[in-house]
Amino acid sequence: MKKTPLPELVGRIGQTAVAKALRVSSPAISKALRNERDIQVIEHDDGTFTAEEIRPFPSQHTAA
C-alpha cells in the first residue's frame, strides 16, 4: 500500500488515468486540484486505488 498526494499522482500518470482509477470524472479531479484539496491517493497491493481527504473537524464551509 502506497499513499501519494493527488497532484503528484496526476503529474506522474495523468488526470484521465487518475479519474479512471478512482471511478470519478476527469472534471472532478480537475476541481479537486484547482481547490487545492488535501487528497491522498492510496494504491493497494492488488492494483486498485482509493482516496482519502484530510480536512479540519468540524469542517467550516466558507463562501467564496
TrEMBL record:
This is Cro/Cl family transcriptional regulator. It comes from Pseudomonas vancouverensis. One of its GO terms (molecular function) is DNA binding. It holds the Pfam family Cro. GO terms for biological process: regulation of DNA-templated transcription. SUPFAM superfamilies: lambda repressor-like DNA-binding domains. InterPro entries: Cro-like, Cro_sf, Lambda_DNA-bd_dom_sf. It comes from the Bacteria.
